[in-house]
Amino acid sequence: MQPTQVLQRSIRRLKLTTKQTNKGYYKGTGSGAMGRHTSRGKYIVEYHKVRTYVCPNLTGFDLTPFVTKRLDPKETKTKYENKEGPLSGKLYLEKWKEENGRD
């Protein structure tokens, strides 16, 4: 079964995927080589090919990250009596008795 002719024309304009070709097609990730292989099996990094990112001077920059300053820090105190915390069997039984009323 094949798509209609109208769909086939629009599919041709899309990028080729690995599912549309035979085996042996390797698409890659778009990242370029940053060096070369030697005849002895080593890899030499050529630093003029390495990507570097330069951060601009941000002094006096008005924008802030998307984090509110009104956020209170979490309390480190635990509300559980023993070190097992919410996984305690005793705590589970007490809660069950409160909700169900019987043993």
TrEMBL record:
Family: Belongs to the mitochondrion-specific ribosomal protein mL41 family.
Keyword entries, A-Z: Mitochondrion, Ribonucleoprotein, Ribosomal protein, Transit peptide
Keyword Transit peptide applies: yes
Protein name according to UniProt: Mitochondrial ribosomal protein L27-domain-containing protein
Compartments, record wording: Mitochondrion
Location (main, coarse): mitochondrion
UniProt xrefs under Pfam families: MRP-L27
Organism: Phyllosticta citribraziliensis
Any one Gene Ontology cellular component term annotated for this protein: ribosome
